[in-house]
Amino acid sequence: GAGVSQSPSNKVTEKGKDVELRCDPISGHTALYWYRQSLGQGLEFLIYFQGNSAPDKSGLPSDRFSAERTGGSVSTLTIQRTQQEDSAVYLCASRTGQYNYGYTFGSGTRLTVV
Amino acid sequence: KQEVTQIPAALSVPEGENLVLNCSFTDSAIYNLQWFRQDPGKGLTSLLLIQSSQREQTSGRLNASLDKSSGRSTLYIAASQPGDSATYLCAVRRETSGSRLTFGEGTQLTVNP
Question: Which residues of B touch A41 (CB under 8 A)?
């Protein structure tokens, strides 16, 4: 597609439930990132996928968070047993494999845990 | 550890004024620096990307400069308009340790008509 697409745009869930957030990157972009933006805070790196390499999961805040990228394209971020502190905007970005190119971000998923 | 600081945190100016937003970073070993704009409740829109070998980039009324050795970048907005009101974020990409971006906290700009 023309841009990075994220769904849903908004999600309200009850504490303890699992949620899945989807990211559809720009076609042909080999690198995909997830970031989190909590209220009043900066963007926090979560996870990075590059081609067929093992993902960099060093930013995931707990083992309740996981992500996968199927077929080198669509990615799903899963949060299990959601907590109120998981409430944030989750942003996905993609980039070509060439190092001198910048990032393109999606519009994000606003997650509210009640 | 790379740290990125943006000053000021908030700025309010009258329409038509020229303004400068500042970004500083602690580790000069960067690959590039990118300025983004974020409107309330929206994602990030890329404004300008400066490679580490470049000194500045221009797009319309926007001009971004980079002084890698001193760890500074500025975003200059000429003839500001109310539509420029948004949060402006700078982000640096390090030469090593993968290619994640490290973001500043942002400058919240309000341009008053």
Answer: 105
The predicted structure's pLDDT at residue A98: 67
Beta strands in chain B (DSSP E): 4-7, 10-14, 19-25, 30-38, 44-51, 56-59, 62-67, 72-77, 86-94, 101-103, 107-112
Candidate from B34, B41, B105 with C-beta closest to A103: B34
Q: Going by DSSP bridges, is the β-strand pair A75-79/A65-69 parallel, antiparallel, or unpaired? A: antiparallel
Band of residue B96 on the pLDDT scale cut at 50, 70, 90 = low
Query: pLDDT tier at B7 (50, 70, 90 boundaries)?
Result: very high
Please compute the mean of the pLDDT values over residues A65-72 and round it to a whole number. Answer: 90
pLDDT at B97 over 60: no
**Encoded tokens for A34:** 């997830």
Residue with tokens 């490290």: B102
Q: How far is A108 from chain B (nearest CA, A)?
A: 6
Terminal-to-terminal C-alpha distance of chain B:
41
Give the closest of B89, B100, B105 to A48, CB-based. B100
pLDDT (average), residues B69-77:
96
Query: By the 8 A CB rule, do B28 and B85 touch?
Result: no
* pLDDT (average), residues B58-78: 96
pLDDT of residue A52: 84
Residue B53 CB partners (closer than 8 Å, separation 6+): none
Looking at CA atoms only, how far is residue A104 from chain B in angstroms?
7
**Which has the closest alpha carbon to A26: A111, A108, A112, A105?**
A105
